[in-house]
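Need T20D4.11-like domain-containing protein's 3D structure for a figure. Predict it.
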Amino acid sequence: MQRGGCFLIWVTLAMVTIPFYVFRAQSYIFHGNLGCSSVFHEANGLIENEYNKSKWILRRPEYYSNVSKSCQEADMCSHVIKNSVEHSGLLLNGLCPFFVYYRGPLFSTCANSLIDKLGQNNSCVDAVFGIGFENSTEICNQWDDLRNCLRGTIDSTCLEIRNITGAMKYFAILKTELCDSNSGNATVLEDVDTFEEILEDQEVEVIV
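Structure prediction for T20D4.11-like domain-containing protein:
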């Protein structure tokens, strides 16, 4: 009985202490040498570098794997420090939700199918994924035509996308961040979608 009692005590202690040390490990990762600010800086920097190039163009989803990963890490970090002073001062690039969705398990298949249609006389596919734009002003001036064309092309090409309105919501984020000069390409954390939910919604749609 004594041995059994000791064993139960050890099990109880393990159940109490292991979650504590896991939490401490997470806190160390995000508050240690890296710090949440560094995680956010990396995600924002990757997007800024992409759009500081001479021509804007959407590439295959695999190209944005590092961007999507960094955005998800920044989002995870924000949950760890949610109630801290540091959290209130962090800004995440408003394009992060778009790239997490674009690189997700469902839309990445659709994006590759769209890119495969390059050169087949589809004006919006050729413009967005092939020819590209010299600056954001070109995109903004052409957006209404591009949006309607993209919606129809996604609907006819990507049978796996059951929620066309949901997909276009993320393209609306893309348009807003590129065209709204008041946004400054930065979004307060509270205004950013939960990236885990973005991916979970895609996974559910794949299963269905």
